[in-house]
Model the fold of this input.
Amino acid sequence: MFMALEQTQARIDDLSRRLASIEAVVDPAAKRVQIAELEQQVSVPNLWDDQERAQQLTSKLSSLNADVDRVTSLRTRLDDAEVLAQLAAEADDADSAAEADREVAGLSQEIEALEIRTLLSGEYDQRDALITIRSEAGGVDAADWASMLLRMYERWADRHRYAYEVYDISYAEEAGIKSATFQVKAPYAYGTLSVEQGTHRLVRISPFDNQSRRQTSFAGVEVLPVVEEADHIDIPEADIRVDVFRSTGPGGQSVNTTDSAVRIYHIPTGITVTCQNEKSQIQNKAACLRVLQARLLEKAREQREAEMNALKSDGNSWGSQMRSYVLHPYQMVKDLRTGYEVSNPDAVFDGDIDGFIDEGIRWRKKQDQS
Done:
């Protein structure tokens, strides 16, 4: 048992060093100062007169509190586990030793997950994510594949209890979807999901082919940070054309009975945004403008990044095709950038993609440092 306790203590020492690195990044003391300032701001009586600002303040306060609580809780649990291991050694107590070992194993997983979070230090990583999925090459199979990806991300959000809102779905004629745009509302949603951007390839026996031939189909995933007021993305009315039309696709209540759907065309860039899932034309226009602002913000970021990459000799091209999902002749899902793979596609389609996301974040950090 002595050897086992020595190993447990060594793991505790390693976890303590890793947690200290996380604490240096998170900086709980600085965050407590921010929390105190925000608590004063949210305590004013007329806070909710401006609902959007109130939601921003309370959301930021909740996120800061969660960050501090998570780190301090892990430190307390790690200290307690060390005390338990020492007591087990002194009393030669096998049950206490086993309990300490189980707690250290659990802490190892949680600290590893938090290490991933500390890698999200980009300009917009803390924001909500705006995701658009589009069917690409592959005909009806690609449209079906796009709908499978939409479900995969919705199930991922459900697993984490993250709220999400679908702004627009364009249904294909035979099956599946041409495109869908939705927002994931969670701290660090953009930083987390941004590694999902790129082309996703599916290889399977086509359910739409009467000869049961193997089909390869593609769908593109675009991930953008949600625009905040501080971004100052001004869109003059003269720069946009607004069209209204009747919503299409599956009905429901009054969604298909009035001209409530909105399409906005941004004249200077040629960007077109459509929203039809809200109940009124005003709500759909507001949602369209949010999406358009996000795309203009991303376009500006890409221009800045291109300017920086032009100064480098090799650049930082990630490539377009980023993940392959194979259902025939064998079963495997593999990330083409990181090499991470699993042999259970059904679990992946059911939203179990955290392993791919974590490896993608690590890979991106290495690319940024190279």
Observations:
- The CA atoms of residues 209 and 294 lie 39 Å apart.
- Confidence is low (pLDDT under 50) at residues 251-255, 311-319.
